Amino acid sequence: MSLQKYVQQLKPIQENNTNYVNRVQTLLCEKGMSPPEFAKYGGKRARIFDKAIDDGTPLETDSGTFPLTWINDSDRDKFKTAIGQDAKAYNTSLKSGNKFKPILQNKDGEQFTIKQIVKNKMFGGEGSSGEPKGADWEDIITHHFNVLVGQEGFDPKATKAVEEKWDDFDEIGKKIAENFKSQGITKPMVQYGAGKSKSNLSSFWQNPAQGVKGGTDGTPKTDMYTSNYQISLKKAGGSQLASGGQGETLATFYAALQHFSTISKEGKAVIDEVIKEIKDNFEKLSTNYSKGDLEKIAKDKKKQGKLSNTDKTALTQYITTEEFHKDFNKEIIPKLNSITDAKEFKEWFIFEAMSGYSKFKEKRAVASVCMEFSADNGKVTKFIEVAPSGLTKGLSKASISGKIKDIASGAKIYAAWKSSGGNPYSVLRVSSYGEDENFDEMTLRGCIRKIIHEDKISQAFLREEVGQLDEFKFIGRTFDRIKKMGKNAILWVKNLITKIMKAVTQALNKIKKMGKKIFEGLFKFIGLTPTVGSTVPNEIKGFVTVV
């Protein structure tokens, strides 16, 4: 290369006319062309380059803009042979050792390598808007696929968009269409284009459970569809979808729970275990009493001497409210965590995350197959069947493909549980009772409060203290008052606990009949709510919007 090139870079001749700010910005965003860049879109950029040389169109280099010619016919022939091939083949044909050899020259005899050609707007650089984005690729593929299957114009909007703006992407469009057909897609296609409105969402998705805010992103999963496929489309190497946040993840979680509770044998087994755990823990109340004044009795040998052997045994087995909750949570939370560990639950979670089965009002928006394509060589790089065989008929009734089952095994879903009241040890706090107070008998707290409220003995003794005591201390204080009167306190407690257990059993039996909302009912009954997170396999990250 001549010395003049370097002199010009250090001290441009037309210094007074140079906008240095613009020049610096340009240099920062410019980058040289390369085999992968020329190979993009089925060699489209390579063809633009080749035509520019043949037509004498000035090309921008790192040292100026001017027409270029081939140094020799051999390099020209290698380049033309490589057009449309993958980057590796192109790279090999134009390399000399480990460096690109100069293959081009200007009229002054300065020689240039491929990498000295600037990626400007001609080649899609400098923020060029001349390259397709997501919806544009959907139009290109849809149009060329319809041409391929003999139904040109089947989607007139897609055809119009291609004819007006994307006719120079015909070559890569045809290749992609051919590879779509090789996957078994044969019917004419329509680009969906339903927008992102929240109005697309089902009411369930926006509020998947009582007091739970769900997802707000109304973007359909389906990008294009045929009579038997609803396709979620992604471009290989494109940006991944942003996380949908906790609302999107919670909606997916509750949707998976509905399938898990009604369809899965594993889900029904988990439900039985949770209900059994609740009953087993409350049966302990027949011999476990709150600390309060009973602790004083337990430490006072004179008072103990006045108690029967039965009473003495009972007193050694009591618990405080906090101890009860700690023990209860210790037992129940592992059972709840078994939900997210269950194989079938993970399968339903991934199915929902990829399909949007429960998400949309319009079932056309639900994807039956997820596909990824290469804009460089036109290949279908991923064909992930969501419904069996990827067919729309698998969405008439939720059905999981074998592929999703395989993928789900690599997913991790976890839930952190917190009290719906904020403090896990304040769930059972008694408040002052009104004459017409209503109790939610579908909650553990409501069952206990109602029975205590209806108990005439405890109300007669401790009505004035009811607002200061939790339920278990309330029971303990009443026990002490009854004992002091020489009455059978143990019998009273056992009768009270029997009534509480009856109320708990009745509530759980009703919850068992809630069908797809059974887990929602159980969470409410226990007084726990989940915060959900997940880790999904890299293979599907571009197709899901969960945390």
Task: Give the helix/strand layout.
Elements: H1 3-10, H2 20-29, H3 35-55, E1 59-61, E2 64-66, E3 69-70, H4 73-82, H5 87-93, E4 95-96, E5 99-100, E6 104-105, E7 111-112, H6 134-148, H7 156-165, H8 170-182, E8 190-191, H9 203-206, E9 224-225, E10 230-235, H10 245-262, H11 265-283, H12 292-299, H13 301-305, H14 309-315, H15 321-341, H16 343-355, E11 369-373, E12 380-385, H17 402-408, E13 412-419, H18 444-454, H19 456-462, H20 471-484, H21 489-512, H22 518-526, E14 528-535
Helix pairs in contact: 3-5, 6-7, 6-8, 10-11, 10-16, 11-15, 11-21, 11-22, 16-17, 18-21, 19-20, 20-21, 21-22
In a few lines, what is going on in this structure?
The protein has 547 residues and is an alpha+beta fold. Helix content is 48%, strand content 10%. The chain has helices at residues 3-10, 20-29, 35-55, 73-82, 87-93, 134-148, 156-165, 170-182, 203-206, 245-262, 265-283, 292-299, 301-305, 309-315, 321-341, 343-355, 402-408, 444-454, 456-462, 471-484, 489-512, 518-526; strands at 59-61, 64-66, 69-70, 95-96, 99-100, 104-105, 111-112, 190-191, 224-225, 230-235, 369-373, 380-385, 412-419, 528-535.
